Amino acid sequence: MKAYQADIAKFEASDTQVFGMSVDSVPANREFAKQIGVTFPILSDFVKRSVVKDYGVFNEERGFGNRATFVIDKEGIIQHIDEGGAAIDPTTAAEACNILTRKKAQ
Amino acid sequence: MIRKSLFAVLFLTILAVAVSAQVPAASPQPPAAPKPAPPAPKTHLKVGQPAPEFNLPATDGKTYKLSDFKNKKNVVLAIYVLAFTGG
Fold it and tell me: How many contacts, defined by CB atoms under 8 Å, are there between A and B?
């Protein structure tokens, strides 16, 4: 999350809304965001945990989501996926957004 | 990497079973291999597919729907394990 925050200008420059998402409650996420200085919204899939299941990042056995980043274009199509350790580093996701923006400009 | 080592474990297990099946059953069974940690589930979603809709409350007090961004903005969704795990 911190790394995404550090790169927030890159995402904003490519006309991109960044969201965090977890299965924690809104107050827990708010506290977390405050502690690590995240300003983008963190979505809370706390009640039903249906979205993390829809995105295939919910570990039934352990009861929580794994780490994954999805880049979704303006048509609502997935353009890039980072999973596991790769999802900690926002570089590839930022690049994917940059490419999307350049495509649109052509 | 994980997948590769899982395949290696699987291959060795099959090999061990095949070998032990040919040896007369006089020797005691070899100790069972330690159970590997469950692999991190890989998402079923693929690049090029429509992203599933969401409609969730956020830290800023607003509720966000993916479809609200259609034709307006790209969306990056960074889903993480739990709060207080850093990253």
Answer: 188
